[in-house]
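User: Sequence recovery, please. Input:
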């Protein structure tokens, strides 16, 4: 039976490197995907997720267990991404929904194993173009609003999780999401 994150953290805090390596193995794919959603660049996403794991390792003694390791680590990761973004290298482009397997070719593609229902290619293209435009507009939002939208829409996180990751209250996250949605609706309606 696999140890839980809490047990691995306790072992890692006592100097067990293998325990920390197990934590990295458990969370590295999701960390990469979150970083990629921010950076939109494979190499930069790898660097960001590695930087976050390094910061987590260096600060592991400070982890007090008030939140889960997952929440604590992803807060570090998102802060790394936001810092990178503030330096002007992140969010260069936001091209809409992209199949993450393009970025991780070693993963088996479950789509190949499941027959697809018939979909009109023109409808798919229209939807992809609409989503591409929406994500281009997301790029114009404030960093906090972009982070909240990305974590909510792309990562499927609940408001409570987003609040923990961003270090904000749930009410503030809801305000960021509400304002982002209002801004996006206005800009889409204006044809911006």
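Assistant: Recovered sequence (192 residues):
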């Amino acid at each position: 039976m696999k140890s839980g994150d809490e047990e691995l953290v306790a072992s890692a805090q006592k100097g067990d490197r293998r325990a920390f390596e197990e934590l990295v193995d458990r969370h590295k794919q999701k960390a990469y995907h979150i970083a990629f959603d921010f950076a939109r660049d494979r190499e930069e996403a790898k660097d960001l997720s590695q930087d976050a794991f390094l910061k987590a390792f260096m600060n592991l003694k400070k982890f007090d267990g008030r939140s889960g390791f997952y929440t604590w680590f992803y807060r570090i990761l998102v802060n790394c991404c936001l810092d990178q973004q503030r330096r002007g290298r992140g969010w260069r482009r936001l091209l809409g929904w992209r199949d993450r397997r393009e970025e991780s070719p070693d993963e088996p593609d479950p789509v190949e194993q499941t027959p697809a229902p018939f979909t009109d290619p023109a409808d798919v293209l229209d939807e992809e173009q609409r989503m591409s435009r929406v994500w281009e507009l997301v790029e114009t939002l404030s960093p906090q609003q972009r982070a909240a939208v990305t974590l909510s829409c792309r990562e499927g996180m609940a408001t409570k999780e987003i609040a923990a990751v961003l270090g904000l209250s749930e009410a503030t996250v809801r305000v960021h999401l509400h304002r982002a949605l209002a801004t996006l609706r206005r800009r889409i309606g204006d044809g911006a």
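The domain at 1-90 is CATH 1.10.1740.10 (Rna Polymerase Sigma Factor; Chain: A).
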